[in-house]
């Protein structure tokens, strides 16, 4: 059985930047995905799997998770009969790290899902509609919610907006603020196109970071290293943080009212740099 990328396996999911979605009907992609640089891997039982293949895909996921693999699983929405089958099966999965609940619109959907799984199983609420965005604060505060994620493509279909960052800024901001209010890790942004080039991925990650989101879904394992880089502190930020912390530890004076906030930011950057292994990168 293939071994999960050790660096990624050791990283807490609250800090995961890249979230790689793998079509669960393509069992041959499981091992390469788990060996990739994706911080977290999600076996997708929802959007990428046709209805007539969901049962066999679910069997493949259970075989993998009870055979030594560990991963997250995106499950069908609570309004679907497939949700019942998903949670019934996954409640017996040894290697399940957590689930991503598609089409989350209400807090009770997250809580009920968590109740149907093993105690303590985290649930990522995938928000994909106008109603979900408007209920984001309640969803973020619901028992069982681990992080919020933004289903950009389905949200655009629901609302009728373009992919322009300005058109999606309100929804992204709602998820970021809701995550903060709910005491959650940063929200996870939607994916770029599967065939997007390096420039497009870099620009998309900049939008994600500028909006305050700290993770991003990916549909292509060739993209995950770019996502990791785009959502990590830059070399300049790390150098600045190291310099400020060193000065503080040497007894630098506070100076003005911006000093303590800057120090807190430097300490956060330093902590992330340690977690992501950036000091010697």
TrEMBL record:
The keyword Metal-binding applies. Substrate binds at residues 74, 128. Mg(2+) binds at residues 128, 154. GO terms for molecular function: lyase activity; magnesium ion binding. GO terms for biological process: oxaloacetate metabolic process. InterPro entries: Aldolase/citrate-lyase_domain, Citrate_lyase_beta/mcl1/mcl2, Pyrv/PenolPyrv_kinase-like_dom, Pyrv_kinase-like_dom_sf. Residues 34-219 form the HpcH/HpaI aldolase/citrate lyase domain. Keywords: Lyase, Magnesium, Metal-binding. It holds the Pfam family HpcH_HpaI. Its cofactor is Mg(2+). This is CoA ester lyase.
